[in-house]
Amino acid sequence: MRDPARRPAGPQGTALRLTVLLGEGDQYHHRPAYAEIVHRAREAGLAGAGVFRGIEGFGASGLVHTTRLLSLSEDLPVAVVVVDEAPRVRAFLPELEELTRDGLVLLDEVEVVRFPGRDEAADGGPTGGGASGGEAIGGGAGA
To answer: What is the 8-class DSSP label of residue 87?
Structure first.
């Protein structure tokens, strides 16, 4: 197993974004599935991962889960986002077969404009922290 702390700064230019959409209550061996995905991505040495909780959404069941109704706020949607070079992300996909039965797995090509590296963090520079704009509940590129 690779030491994630020794991973280079991260992808530059074109990269692949993996997004896994699942329910907050989805479990893998009595652990949140989103947490297991983040930990396995780190163990695999991927550049970064983050988990973002949605405020409303629905999946295959058609039932809308929302923070506005207490009875429907128990299984809110979450998105696990991983970004790295395409071959590294594609090599990680078999892990998801085991971890997500009901989740929707998406891949899209993205352009990395800036990726604060771990080397900067060690020198006291910027540490990053992944994407912003959502409520992070686990992981993060700088975590």
So the answer is: H
